[in-house]
Amino acid sequence: MNSLLDWSICYVSVIYRCRAPLVSRSWWIELFPSIRKLHFVNYKLNIKMFQKIGPALINITDLDMGYMTKITDDYMAVIGSLHKLERLKIRKSSKITDLGMKNLQGLTRLKFLKLGNCKGISHVTLMKLSPLKHLECLKLFAFSGMIDAGMKAISNNFLNLYTLDLRGCVKIRDNSLAYLSELGNLTSLTLTHTQITDEGIGQLSCLYDLQHLSLARSKNDNFTGAGLSSIRDLSKLKTIDLSMCRNITDDGIVSLNTLFSLVYIDLSGLSKITDGSLKYLAVLPALKLLDLRDCKKITTAGINHIREDVYIM
To answer: What separation in angstroms does the CA of 97 have from each of 73, 118, 153, 288?
Structure first.
């Protein structure tokens, strides 16, 4: 370690595996102002301790609450006082409500927000967080509040988003995607495990800066890949994940042959595609990695259509 700051970050990651009383001791709290990144790993911090150390966390820019499942609105009040915060991760905290999330309105420097399996909050949270104008990355895993009103709030409030990850938001359907047209800066979009169909893919055609797209594990049988023709003009697209979308056929894959910037394509688990689909991918000059695991109708003869320098999984 070359500095006290580096040492402090390392020290926190180790000491947090020790007994809880250490955190509340004065000599320990004195270290916090020099810390910028604070990640709780397999550590349980009760609200009294968190409230006690809260005033000393004035310089924290990166906070990861780990998998502390008993976080409540009282914790959010402390987090809301950390005005230098730029990155925040909270997972599996079902006791947080929309009222508690309102405490984050003052975190105007926040650029990265991840909420995973926080089942106590709804689309109301996304409406209340409109002051977070600098948000660039929003990850809402299995977010039960992701209905049309939630998507509308995202498109209205977070116009500077580069990354939007909505994996596991099973209430997202085709009409929800219409709001994405307002997010012209998006470079990465994850819609894994949602209800989108071919019709919904058409709503993505205006996202011209998109570089990474995941449509994997669609829960709707009406996603056959026909809608991929709508994204043929997304010339900056570098990666696309269609894994486990079991109703995609060769007719869907042909639409990828105009995406000349594609470096990585995941077609794993697509049991209906055949060797014929690989002929369309052979023309992609930037392709480096192609995932064909569990594509039962793909043969060695079909793989021979792909350039030798492409790594095939």
So the answer is: 7, 9, 17, 44
Contact 290, 265 (CB under 8 A): yes
- Residue in the structure block whose two tokens are 């259509």: 305
Confirm if 242 and 267 have CB atoms less than 8 A apart: yes
Residues 6+ apart with CB under 8 A from 19: none
Q: For tokens 């990828």, name the residue.
A: 256
Q: Which residues contact 250 (CB under 8 A, 6 or more apart)?
A: 272, 273, 274, 276, 277
Whether residue 146 is predicted with pLDDT greater than 50 in this model: the reply is yes
Position 94 confidence tier, pLDDT thresholds 50, 70, 90: confident
**Inter-residue contact 125 to 98 (CB < 8 Å):** yes
Predicted TM-score of the model (pTM): 0.89
Residue 29: pLDDT band (50, 70, 90) is: low
pLDDT at 40: 77
Contact criterion met (CB below 8 Å) for 120 and 95 = yes
C-alpha gyration radius of the chain: 22
Q: Which residue has the tokens 């109703």?
A: 247
Q: What are phi and psi of 160, to 5 degrees?
A: -95, 10
